[in-house]
Design a protein that fits this description.
single chain; alpha/beta; ABC transporter transmembrane region fold; 20 helices
Amino acid sequence: MKNIIFRILTYCKPYQKYLILTILCTLAGVSLSLVVPVLIGTAVDDTIGVQNVNFTGLGRTAILLAGTILLSAIFQWLEALFINRLAFGTVKDLRSELMAKLEEMPISYIDSNPRGDLIARVIPDIEILSDGLLQGFAQLFTGIVTILGTLILMLTVNIKITVLVVIMTPLSLIVAGKIAKLCHSSFQRQSASRGEMGALTEEFVGNQKLVKAFAYEQRAEERFAVMNQELSEAGLKATFFASVSNPATRFVNNLIYVAVGTVGALGAVGAFPWIGVMSVGKLTSFLAFANQYTKPFNEISGVVAELQNAFSCAQRVFEVLDADSEPDDSDHEVLETCKGELEIRNIKFSYTPDKPLIRDFSMHASAGQKIAIVGKTGCGKSTIINLLLRFYEIQDGEILLDHVSTKQYTRDSLRQQFGMVLQETWIFTGTVAENIAYSKPDATREEIEQAAKAVHAHGFIKRLPEGYDTVISDNSGLSQGQKQLLCIARIMLRKPPMLILDEATSSIDLRTEHRIQRAFEKLMQGRTSFIIAHRLSTIRNADWILVMQDGNITEQGNHDMLIAQNGYYAELYQSQFAG
């Protein structure tokens, strides 16, 4: 926990001016609040005695008391203002760093962690951390100053009773410390359960059509109910221990208050001469000081739940920040452009060590060649694409681009040479023009429209309410085929040296597919292209076809050669075009 607190404080460094202002306002506000019991004690002494009320002194004290309370309130407001700026500025930077870290993470990390859990760390976990910062810093500054200030003032009134208060104080600290330990583990479990529930909810909501299509609603509710019960139990346990903290410390502090009041009163009437003589006004002030002295312990124990929850969330956030990023390759060569000659030499790769996938894969693609890759699901087709783009790193072998190892180039510049259209579509909230220009932000409207016309998307775009300026999103009512056309238009707009088409036309009807294939043929002229397809009609004109099974090439050649071999490719082709 100490390391977590230290790391949180390092993020506060850019806002240290607010920290200093907070400390100054706290010192001023608490100091003024400590003057209030002194003035009240003076007022009490001015009213003691039959027909012996000092109205002049009482009036002066009342004016001072009102002014002191007003100034104290102003400084407390300023303290809250500065602590808010400190906390929200700190979590803003932390959230920005976390998002930047996710952008630097290897694809393997994103693939191996539930998306809902990662989203929970970026948004609700940091929000809870923000609340904990607000509570923690405010109570820490105010509490320390109040404890020290009241301790000094109590010593000036009566040293012996002050020693009694200090001796009894550790009881409150021991109780709060024991409860804090119980809270921490409970809030850790609660944070983990919250992330798991977020992942499960994202899974069900994002795939609601499949849930309904397979009548999975009842089982989904059952799985959610189990996780919901776990979260409820963890939250109930954490809240129980947190709710016990404040009453327990308040009970101990009230015992201290009763002891001080009893001893002080007996001393004031002369029953305990060893205590010393105190006036009723001084006793009143001392009791107020004792109450203010124990109050910070109550308040700190009262926010122990928020602090423990915040530390648990901070730990989850730091787990992501501490994960390994993609190795820095800024000192590597920047690839400006390429011819597109690509060679793969004896590469080996597996996602997990115990399950080899690519064992000894080799291939060569000349510049401008169209290479098609076919095979059963899970044979490694998409994995080859991941390795070409260095989303994953090969364990052995070499990939050469224009006779140079791709590892000599920066990843960003290497990926800039590829244009990729996947089976899954991605449309962000923005205009149609902005979605197409995602691959080329500085594109003109004319270039955007030309790209849309090339993929036969111009017609349906013009029928939208505001044409290219229509705001769309992934849930705006566009069909899967229309969204795929927009994704293809992005690549048409950019025209990179190499293309990757991973089932790019799988969501489009056959008539539109034929049109797009003609557009692709024009786009692929002079560009090295890798085509992954299950529809063999889309790859008949490929220069070279690779047939993969279990991570290896089992057949290769052009369409006519593979048909003549009468192997797996011929069998697959005949199954699609029987008769």
